[in-house]
TrEMBL record:
Function: Required for a late step of 50S ribosomal subunit assembly. Has GTPase activity.
Name of the protein in its database record: Ribosome biogenesis GTPase A
InterPro entries listed in its UniProt record: G_CP_dom, GTP-bd, GTP-bd_ortho_bundle_sf, GTP-bd_ribosome_bgen, GTPase_MTG1, P-loop_NTPase
Residues that coordinate or bind GTP: 66-69, 94-95, 138-143, 182
Chief location category: cytoplasm
Signal peptide boundaries: none
Organism: Pectinatus cerevisiiphilus
Amino acid sequence: MEKRNHDVPLVQWFPGHMAKARRLIEENLKLVDIVVELLDARIPLSSSNPMLKGLIGSKTHAIVLNKADLADPGITREWVEFYKRMGKSALAVNSVQGKNIKELINMINTLTQRQTSKFAAQGARPRNARAMIAGIPNVGKSSLINRLAGSAATKTENRPGVTRAKQWIRIGKNIDLLDMPGLLWPKFDDPIVGLNLAFTGAVNDDTYDKEKVSLLLLDYLKEHYPKLLEERYKIDALPEDTTELFELIGRKRGCIIKGGRVDEEKIITVIFTDFRNGRLGKISLEAPSV
């Protein structure tokens, strides 16, 4: 998404518990065979935590593009191919509907086969693969874990070095999954990253100028997905002025207060909710550059 920097409000949010989340991930990495990094399929670059890359080091690392049901499918396919060209195992999933969940389980088993089978070479039984799913807040980690675990999920025993607050979840017969909290990084150096995280709801809405951010989201949608805006809000022709479009959406959606004025707070909620829940359609905010 290309925007002039002076048009982009500063979005920064790093609540105190994020430091604890980092420590938990760092302390428990030695217990797992693979880190499955969960990204938002609409913003794979912006939702990839640079802090996590440093923590993972040489650990086996797979990429999962979640919320693929909300993203532009053609662009999502480009992202999967992009990561594969970079030498990463990558998969797009829809954790709400369960699409590609079996493929994800197979990928984890395949990538951890060397670690889990080395015990058999020494005469012992192969142990379960140990996986950590990590990602930023609101990327759908809980939904994915619940979908992976299913109704037959059981907590496995506490393992050395794991606090009581952490739990291992048995996935099928061969995978033990370690649940980790969502992790943001202290400063978004690129203002567009902060903006994309605000668009998708990864940062608290109370920490930035919601009106400016909603107008910038409309700018992007006008440029890249105008038909979706027209269809959702029943607009024959989008006005050139984004503020005029903002008010027109409010009137179309009945966001009117005393005196016939539009209720800006309600319009902002409508725009954010429609985008984040996929009511506008399948939309991606980032595409691979190569």
